[in-house]
Structures
1.
Amino acid sequence: MAPSLGRKTVVRRRLLERLERSREWPLVVVNAGPGYGKTTVLTQWVSAGGPRRFAWVSLDDTHNDPIVLLTYVAAALDRVSPIDPRVFDALASPGASIFARVLPRLGAALAAVDEPLVLVLDDVHVIENEECVDAIVTLVGHLAEGSTMVLATRDRSALPMAKLRARSLEVGADDLRMGVPEASALLRAADVECADGDVTDLVDHTEGWPAGLYLAARSVGAPDGGPREARAVTGNDPFVVDFLRAEFLAGRDPDEVAFLTRASVLEHLSGPLCDATLQRDDSAVMLEALERSNAFVVALDRDRTWYRCHHLVRELLGSELRRTEPAVVSALHVRAGDWCLQNGHVVWAMGHAQADGDADRVAALIERAGQPVFQSGRGATLEQWLTWLRTHAEPSRYPAAAIAGSMFFAAIGQPTEANRWAVISEHGGYTGPLPDGTESIETWRAMLRALRSRDGLEAMHADAAFAVETIAPGSIWRPISTTMLGLSEMLAGDADAADDRFVDVIEMAPHVGAHDLVPAVMAVRALIAIDRDEWDRALELTERAVWTTRGSRRQDSPSDALTFAVATRAALHFGRSSEALALLAESQRRLPQWGYAIPVPATQTRLELARVYVALGDARGAETMLREANAILRRCQGLGNLGEQTAELHVRLGSRPHDGTQMSALSTAELRVVPLLSTHLTFAEIGTRLHISRNTVKSHAMAIYRKLGVSSRSEAVDRARELGLLSHDSRL
C-alpha cells in the first residue's frame, strides 16, 4: 500500500503527466539520491487515480529474501486483482525453486491480470541479494501489455540496466529537481512568504533539491531565519548535514526532537512499538502530530497505525543519537527487539539484535525461530542470520544455533556449509534446556549425527535411539530423530520395527509442525511393502503420499524427491506410463537439493530412480543415478544394505544399450542449471549464482541440449517445460 500523502504537498504536475504516459514502457526507473521526492511523486501518482490500478510494495532490509520479496509482491497484486492461489502455495513451500516454480507462477499471474496495472517497488536500493534482483528483472518480462513496473531507488548500479534500458523509461535527479514555480508553491505550503528574486536565488543555491528547499523553507519561517541564511542547503554541499542538524533540530520542539532521535533505531514506527522502546505512553499522539505538521514523518497506512521517518532525517538522527547518547542505543535496541518478538515480528527482532551487535541474542533467535522461519519458506533470511553469526562472533560458542544451521544447509542442498556448521556444533557447552524443551545439547548433537550418518549404520542407530529417548515430547526434532531410527532399522534388515517407527512419525509429525516428513515416510513404508511384494499396499501408500504433498502448502519440499521416485515406480508397475513420467519429473525437479548432507534418503532416492530408469529402458538415466549414489556412499560408508542395492543394480543394468526418455539422463548438476536457463542471466552470471565457472555452466548447458534433443537455450526451456522440469508457466 502506498504511503499517505502529507497534508501540504506540492503537486508535481509535469512529472505526473510524464509518468502517466509510461504505459508504453514495461519498466520505469526513478533514480535519485535521498530527498529528491521519489516516494512523494509516486504517491501523488497513485492518489491521482487514472485508468490503471496500482500495487505498491515499500522495501526494507527484510526483503533481501526472494520469498519475502515475492510474497509482498504477490499480496500487493492480489489486493488489486485476485491472483491464482497456487502462487501463495509455492511461496509457502520450504525449498521451492524460485525460478522453476515460484517465479513462473507469479509471472503467469502478473501476465493474466484483467486490466493494466502499475506495480511500484519503492526503495529498491536496499535490495542486495542477487536472487532478488534476478526475480525483479524476470517479473518485468511477464508484465501484461499496458502494465508497468516502477523501481524507485537511490542507486541503480545493482540493476542490469544495460539489459533493461531498451525496455525502460528513466526518471533521474534532473527530472525531480524543482524549478521556481514549484519552489514558490513549496514555500507557500510552508506558510513562508518570499520575494520572487529570493525564490530564484534559493532554487539556484539548492540546485532544486526538494529536501533542501523544504528545509530552507522551514528555516526561513524560523525565528531569525531568512532566505539568505537558507542558501547553503544543497544536495551536493558537504556541509548539508551540519545544516540539517542546525536548522532541523534547533528549530523544533525539544520533546519532538528527543522522540525522533531515539526512535531513529526503528525503521517502522507505531504507537505501541515506540512506547515500549522509548518508555513513554503518548507515542501514537506524537506520531500523528508529527505527520500532520509535515515533520518528515509519513503514514504508511490509511488508519495511521504505522509510520516511517524520512530516510535522510532518520540517518541524520541516528548519527546524532550515536554521537550524543551512545550509552542508550543498546537499551533501545533491546527494548525494541523484545516488543517485536512478543508481537510476532521475529525478523525485526533479529534486525535489532544484529544492529546492537548482540551475538548471544542472535544465536538465541536462530535456535528459537530458525526452523519456523525456514518452514515459512524464508531460507535466505535464515542464511543471512547464520552468516552474520559466523562473521561477527565465534560460532562454536553457540552449538545449538550451529546444529540448526547444519540442519538448514543440509535441507537446501549445501553440503559443504552443512558440514562446516556440523563441525562447529561439536564444540562448546549449553546451559539449561533448549528452546524445544530438550534438557541437553547432547540430544541435538546425536540427532544431527544420525541425520548425517557419517560413522556407519551402528553409530547412526545408537545416535538416533539416544535422541528419541531424550528429546522433548513436543519437539519438532522428535519425528526427525524417529525417522532416522526407523531408517537405521530398515537398513539393518528389521523392516517390521522400522515400519512401526514410521507409523509413529506419520501420527506425530503434523502435531509438531514437521509436515514435510509425512509424505516421505509414507513413501518409505511403500518401499517396505514393495520388498514384501505387496504392490497394492505400495500403490495405496504412494497415492496417499502424493495426495498429501500436493494438498499441502509444502509441495516443493526436497524430501519429496523420494516420495515421487517411489510413486513413479509403483505407477510403472501398474502400467500407468503417462502418470509415471509426470511423477518422474516431479522427483527430478527436487533432486538438486537432496544430496550427501543427508545421505541415507538421498541415496535411496537415486536408487529408486535408477530402478525406474531400468524399467523405462533408459540405461543412461540409470547410470547417472547409480554414479551419484556411489559418490554419496564413498563419503558415508557402512550404511547397511544401500551398498548392496547399488551393486545389484549395476549388475542388472550391465552394458545393454537402451532407448528411452532422454530427460532422465540429466545429472543433479545439470538439473541445477535448467531453471536458470529460463532467466535473463548469461552463462557467466549463472555461474556466479551457482558458484561455478562460466565454462562449467556452458558444459552443463551443452549436455542439457544434447540430452533433451534440442539445439538452443530457448528450445531447452520449452522441452524442460514439456517434461515438467519447469513450470508450464515458465518463459524466457
2.
Amino acid sequence: MFKEKIAVLLKKHAGISEKEILSLLEIPPRQELGDFAFPCFVLAPKLKRNPQDIAAEISGKLQLEIPKEIERIEAAGAYINFFVNKTMFVKSVIEKILKEKEKYGKCNENKRIVIDYSAPNIGKPMHVGHIRSTILGDSLKKILEFHDNKVIGINYLGDIGLHIGKLIVAYQKWGNDKQIEKNPEKELLKLYVKFCREEKLLEEEALSKTIEQEEKEEYLENEWTKKAKQMLQKIESGDKETVAFWKKIEKYSLNGFLDIYKILNIKFNEITGQSKFSALGKKIVEKALAKKIAIKSKDWEIITKLEPLPDKIILRSDGTALYATQDLGAALSRYEKYKFDKMIYVTGSEQILYFQQLFKILEKLGYGWAKSLVHLPFGLINLEEGKMSSREGRVIFLHDIIEKAKELALKEIEKKNPKLKNKKEVAKDVGLAALKYSILKLEPIKSITFSYEHAINFEGDTGPYLQYTHARACSILKKAKEKGNANFYLMKNPKELELVSHLGRFPEVAAAAVSQLKPHLIVTYASETAKLFNEFYAACPVLQAEKGLSEARIELVKASKQVLATCLNLIGIKALERM
C-alpha cells in the first residue's frame, strides 16, 4: 500500500515505470532516515545531472502532492526519504498479516520446478557431508512452494559407479550378512575402507585438478580397480549373481537413508537411482557423436569438445556409463516427464565446472530447456581434523549427529523446564532446530568446519532461540483476554514501531529468498524478528497496558507469532508452543 503510493508519486517526476521504482525503493538503515528511500543515482545518466540536485528538485515538487499516507518527504544527499503516517502504517501491516495469516508474504509464481538434492551414495553412510544438500534442498523446496510453485523434489541416489563395483568386490570377499544387518551403515563403510586400503590408490595431487573424482579413478588403475570395473560391466550386462549383490547393498543403504529422512521430516516426490538413466544417457552419447559434438579418443573414450570449457568424457572406453552419461539421461527424462520451467541441482561447489560442462553439452545438443537448468553450489563441510574421506573412513555419521542433538536438547529441557510434557518429543524438535539452523544460517557458498559445539547450540543466534520466541508469543496470547478494540494510534514506542516496520518487510525478504535461491535470507530475517520481538516485549507491557493500547499490542504479538511461524516452516523447523 505505502510503497505503491510512493511509486505513483515518483512516476510523475522520475520518468521511469512504477515497477522499476518499486524495485529500487530501499529501507533506510536507521529509522531517523525515514521508512523508505529512493536513490536518485539511477536517474543521473538519463537526466545528465548531479543525483543530489535531482533528489532536491523532485523532493521539492513532491511537497505539494503529499498524500495522507505520507507524513513528510525529505532529500538527503542523493536520496529522497519518505516518512509514512505511522498510525496508518502500523494498522495496515498488522491487519494485513492477521487477514492473510500463513499466506502473508507469498507471491504467485505458478511455475513447475524440479529440485535435485540430498543424493547420498548407495553403500556409503549418510554423514555430516550430506546434511547440507539435504537441509538446504528441503528449505528451498518449501520456499518455492510457498510462492505457489509446483515443486518436484528428487533424491537422485548414487546407486552405480566405481564405488559400487568396489563394494561388491569387498562384499563378496569379506562380507558378513549378520553383521551388516545389525548395522548396515557402519559395516558397509568398513568394507569400502578395507577395499580402498588394498587398492592403494596413487596420490590424487599428482593428477590434474580439472578432472572429476570419478575420472581420476580411471587413471589410478591396478588389479583391484580392474575387479571393480568388471563388476560394473557385469551389472550393466545383467549378470544375475552380481546384480543380486548390488540389490542387497541398495536395500541395506536405502533403509538407513529412509530412517534419517523420517527423523528430519524430509520428504521427496521421487527417489531414484542414477543407474536407471544409463541406457538413455548412452543414446544421448550416440546423438552427440552423430552431431559431431563428441568424438572417440585414441583410448576409445567418448569425449565432448566444449571450448572454452575443458573437454568432458561422457562414456568409458569399455562402454560403461559415467556420472555424466547418467546425468544427461536423467535431465532429458525429467524434462519429458515434468516439462519443468526450471531444474535446480543442489550440490557441492567442487562440481561447479562439472555442471557448466553438463549444461553446455545439453545446449549444444539442441535442447532449449537446457537454459532453464541451474546449479546451486554450496561450500564443503570439513571436520576440525581436516577434510572428510569415506575412502579412509574419516566421517561423522549423520545418525550419530541427530542422536547427539536430541540428547543435548533433553539435558537443556531437564535443566530449564523439568515439568514440561512430552519432553523427549520436544527435545527432538529442539535438537533438530539447532542442527538445521546451524547449516542454513550461512550463505550456501560458504564452507563450514563442523563441530558439535557450534552445530548443536541452544544460546544466542540459534534455531531453539526462534522456537523459544514463538513459544513466548503463544504464552502471552494464552493469558490475553479480549477487552475491546485495538487503538493503533496509541502505539508510539520506538520498539513497537521498529517491530512493525520489520514485519512489513517480510514479503520483500521472501521474494528475495526465492529469486536468489538463498534460504539463509529467511534465517537472517527470522533471527532479527525474534530479537526485535523480545526487545519490544521487554520495553512495552502488553497485558498491563492501558485500554486500547493493550489490545493493539496483543494484535502485534499475534502478527509477530504468525510471521515467525511462517519463517520457521520455510526453514524446516517446528514452531513450538511450549518449551
3.
Amino acid sequence: MPHTKSDTSPSGDASARAALPVSPLLQSTLDAAQLPLQVAVINRRTLLISALAVALGLASAAVAQILAALIAFFTNLSFFGQFSTHPRSPAENHLGLLVLVVPVLGALVVGIMARYGSRAIRGHGIPEAMEQVLTNQSRIPPRVTILKPLSAAIAIGTGGPFGAEGPIIATGGALGSVVGQILHSTAAERKTLLAAGAAAGMAATFGSPVSAVLLAVELLLFELRPQSIIPVALACVTATAVRYTLSGSAPVFPMPELPEPGGGAICFYVALGLIIGLASVAITRLVYAIEDRFEELPIHWMYWPALGALVVGVVGYFAPHTLGVGYDNIEQIVSGRLAGTALLFLCVMKLISWSIYLGSGTSGGTLAPLFTIGGGLGAVLGSAVAAAFPELGVDPRIAGLVGMAAIFAGASRALLTSVVFAFETTRSMAGLLPLLGGCTASYLLSSYMMRTTIMTEKIERRGVRVPAEYSADFLEQVRVQEVLSQPVVTLPADETLGQARAWLHQRNQETHHQGFPIVDAAGSLVGVLTRRDLLDPDHDETQPLRSLIGRAPVVAHPEHSLRQAADHMVRNRVGRLAIVESAEPTKVIGVLTRSDLLSAHRRRLEESHRRKRTLRIRHPLSASRK
C-alpha cells in the first residue's frame, strides 16, 4: 500500500468531516487534549494576597513607629543619659570630645550583631531586598526582621548619619517575605508581599503612599501587573492611614505657598537637574570606592563600622547637625531657614560622614542623607543664581526641593518615585513642574554616564543582573497564527512504524521537522509523535503509529498568544504544539515550534534595528556630517 503523506492541511471538506461519526477513542483523545491555561487577571489568590497586604500595611506602620521609638531611645540614652522615647536631635548634646566615642560604641555593637546574627543587616536596606527578589525567590531569613531594625536603631541612635526609612523599608520587606514563606506562597506572591511590606514601611515613615507604590515598582517588583500592584497599593494606603491617625496628615517637609515659576526659572531647574545628576554619579562612585578601600583592610569586617564611626564622631564634633536622621535639616532647606555657607558646610560634612560610615558596612539608609546633600546643593546654587540673575525668578527653596529629588533620581534611577515623593512630602504645587524637569535631566545624565546605580552596583558586582527596563511582553502581543509553521506534515495513524521510517529516510534532506501530528483516516488529530519516537530501536516496525502515542496531544488555537503557547510548552515539557481550529478541534492547521518562537523575536529585533537605522538617516546632525 503506498504511503499517504500530506504537506498541507489534512484534505477533505470540513462539513463532510464534521458529519462523520467520531469514535469513542478519538473523542476521549480530544477531551484529553491539553490547551493553554486561560489565567484570569484577578483570581481568589490575588484577593488573599491583597488581604495579607493590608495586614502587612498595619504591621509595617507599627514597625515604623517602633523603630522611631527605638532610635529616640538610643539617642536619648547615648547622648543625654536618659531613658526616654521622646524624639530629640543628637545635635543638642553637650558631650564635647566624648561625642567621638558614642558612634564607635554603637558601631561595635552593630558589627557584633552582623557577624554573629546575620550579615544581611549590613548595607542600605533596599539593595539587599532587591538581591533577595532577584536571586533567592524573595526569601529573607526571619531573624532579619528583628536584627535589621534593632541594628539600625543602634547605629542611628548613636549618631549614624542615616535616615530611618532604609531600615524600615528593609524590615517591612523582610516581614512580607516571612509571611509568604509561612504560607507556602509562590515566588511571585512572596515578591509581591515583600514589596508590599517594604512600600508600606516607606509610606508609614513619610506619609507618601503614591511614591511608595512607585518605589516598589521601580526598585523591587520589576513589573507593573494588577496581581502585584493592587496588594502593594492597599498596603501603602493602610500604612499611611495609620500614620495619619497617629501623627496627623501634615506634610513631613512643609513648604510655604510659593508662586508658580516662569519660563526662565524652569530652564534653570532643568539645568540644575543636570548638575545634580553629575553629582549623583560622583557620589555613587565615591561610596563604592570607599567600600572597596575597606575591603582591602587587613582586619575583620566586623570592626570596619567602628573605623567609619570614628569619622562620624569627628565630623559630628565640628558639625553636630550631621548626626542622626537629619529630617529637620531637610525641612529647614526646603523652607528656606537654612542657607548660605552654613548650608554648604553641612552638606560637605554630611557627605563625608555618611559616605565613609556607609562604606564601612554598617546598617543604615541612603534616602535622607541624599536628600540633605542634594537639597543643600540645589539651594546653594539656587541662591547664587537668584542673587546674580533676579529677573529669572529662581526660588532657592524650589531649587532645594529639586536638588533633593534629583539626586535620588540620578543615584537610584527611580525617576517617578523621586518626583512624586518630593511632591507628597511637601505638597508644593509650585514645585511639581520643576521637579519633573530637574529629575528627568538628572536621570538622563546619570543613565548616560553610569550603567549601574547606588542600589544595584553592589549586587551586580556579585554577578546578579538587575532589570533596567520594563516593557510589555512581546510574545503576549503576537498571535500563534502569525508565526506557526505551514504547510503541516502529518502521518497516518494506521501506518506502520516501518513505513514511516522508510519515508523519513527517503525525505531526510527535505524534511527537518522534529515532530509530526498523527491523524486518522478522516484527517482528525489523534496525537503527536517526535522523530525520536519514530527512530527508537526498541519499537517494533510492524506497530501502527497509533499504538506509539503515549499521551494526549498538547495543542493550541491560532488565536492564542505566543506567551500562552510558550508557557504551555514549558509546562508540558514539549518542543512543539499542534495548532488546531477552535471551532473544529480535530483539524490540524499547523505546528508551532521553539524555532517559531525565536523567529518572532528575530522579527522584533529586525524592526528595532530598522527604526534605529531610520532615525540615524533622518537625524539632522548625521546629514550635516555628510
